[in-house]
Amino acid sequence: MVKMCGNSPRVVVVGDFFPSKRNEKLFINNNNEFIDVALLKIIQDAKFSFCNLEGTLTRTCVKTEKLGPNIKASPDCIRAYKTVGFTHLATANNHVNDFGQQGYLDTINSIKSQGLTFIGSGVNSTSINHYVVLSVDGKNILFYNVAETMWNAPTNSLAGVFLYDEYVVCNELRELKTKSRIDYIVVLYHGGIEYFPYPSPELKKRFHRMADSGADVILAQHSHCVGCEEWYNGSYLLYGQGNFLFDRQDLECCKSGLLLELSFGNNINVKKTFTKVENGCVKKDEDQFHSGY
């Protein structure tokens, strides 16, 4: 069961978070000038906090051949993630391999250098750790990171992400929930239609199947816009979390996002805060009553 309130120890989850040319120096300077005080307090007051690392942190210039942009920033930017208060980085996305194996290794080494935890990817197909179990308010919460296939498939010798396979994912969720003493499962799903707030029929089926298999919260990232939400048999499904700070697109929908605070007891409590990007910085949106969502 999911409700929309709560004051117990919290976990914060935001969407895509990565430097752009407009704000990369602010990340490197590590002074939090790219985020307002209200949002900073929410993140730093949380017990754990997750964001999607939507790019590679590397100095290599050797790009992977693919459709879409190859996104990178200086490895020095990673310090800002820790200073802001993020504890966990989701890396199952379509940009983890943008600069090949070297870019991936540079990214992971940067994350490890700050003592941060990442889930969702690995240096090859046998080394991927796609979930983490956290203790929150006496409950065991499993955070599970999976992505659609988008130039990010691992091999026996090359890095990649944990890819969505319905048979594998749904069976694993069911087994984890019943055999591993897991109280709640939160799925961070990277996929969907970019710049479109509604799920395709296939995506909706996927979310329903994951919920039927034990997922209590499923959050879609990747669409770069805030999507619609659904309560399905007691599970909370969000079909687009939007960007947190991903200042690379001029579309108005890409400047908005949802910061979610999750607290856990007999129920999962969900609190939503709309965010907005202006001039390369993210702040709490003055309009917290968007009628379109």
Q: In words, what does this structure look like?
A:
The protein is 21% helix and 31% strand. The protein is globular. The protein is α/β, with parallel strands linked by helices. The model has no long low-confidence stretch (mean pLDDT 94). The two termini are 21 Å apart. Strand 6, helix 4 and strand 7 form a beta-alpha-beta unit. The chain has six helices and 19 strands.
TL;DR of this structure?
The chain has helices at residues 24-29, 37-45, 78-84, 100-113, 166-179, 201-212, and strands spanning 2-3, 10-17, 48-53, 56-57, 72-73, 88-90, 117-119, 121-122, 131-136, 139-147, 160-161, 184-190, 217-221, 229-232, 235-238, 243-245, 256-264, 268-278, 281-284. The protein is an alpha/beta fold and 293 residues long.
